[in-house]
From TrEMBL:
GO terms for molecular function: DNA binding; sigma factor activity. Keywords: Sigma factor, Transcription, Transcription regulation. Belongs to the sigma-70 factor family. ECF subfamily. PANTHER family: RNA POLYMERASE ECF-TYPE SIGMA FACTO, RNA POLYMERASE SIGMA FACTOR SIGV. Residues 125-174 form the RNA polymerase sigma factor 70 region 4 type domain. This is Sigma-70 family RNA polymerase sigma factor. GO terms for biological process: DNA-templated transcription initiation. The lineage of its organism: Bacteria, Pseudomonadati, Bacteroidota, Flavobacteriia, Flavobacteriales. CDD domains: Sigma70_r4. Pfam families: Sigma70_r2, Sigma70_r4_2. Residues 23-87 form the RNA polymerase sigma-70 region domain.
């Protein structure tokens, strides 16, 4: 499917077209942000927000422009907004207690993880654990706890499009991990 066709299909809410656009442009947008923020996690978060916003507003895309330029512009604007918000919240960040700052996520296996391991899903879980925590969480909510997109959106306090992009990306990364074996 060509990019122009994918964009037209995406405007009609075709999920395969969204996936193709995500796969085609992920590295470009992520690389752009990585150069700007010099932090992999922040670059990834901004890239997720970029695709979420782009997919949400895809009907506004003017096809006489380049799709990648449109995505980069969205990405740049999201980064600018984040920087502005951070400047406004410096006082709040400085007032955090040491306990809040050093609160580390406990990644020990839960009772559910042990049960799943006993059901011969240990290999899959090991592969899932190789993903970044926010991808692990969205996969867990969607496939193990069987949450709907809306429920995941409410649980994570994120827009539904962010959830969809994270799930697409998580599945792609998980498939790559599994194929490497």
């Amino acid at each position: 499917m060509e990019i122009k066709d994918a964009i037209k299909k995406a405007k009609n809410n075709d999920q395969k077209a969204f996936k193709q656009l995500l796969n085609t442009y992920w590295d470009q947008v992520y690389g752009f942000q990585l150069k700007r923020v010099e932090n992999e996690n922040d670059a990834e978060d901004i890239t997720i927000q970029t695709f979420s916003k782009a997919f949400d507003k895809i009907e506004t895309f003017d096809e006489k422009y380049t799709f990648s330029t449109w995505l980069i512009t969205i990405s740049k604007n999201i980064h600018i907004d984040i920087v502005r918000k951070e400047k406004n919240s410096i006082k709040h960040a400085l007032s955090r207690t040491d306990e809040e700052v050093y609160n580390v996520l406990d990644e020990t296996p839960s009772v559910e993880d042990k049960l799943i391991t006993e059901q011969n899903l240990a290999k899959l879980l090991r592969d899932i654990k190789k993903l970044k925590p926010h991808y692990q969480e969205v996969i867990n909510l969607r496939y193990f706890q069987e949450y709907s997109y809306k429920e995941i959106s409410e649980e994570l306090n994120e827009p539904i499009n962010n959830v969809k992009v994270k799930l697409l990306r998580a599945k792609k990364l998980l498939a790559e991990i599994i194929q490497k074996k």
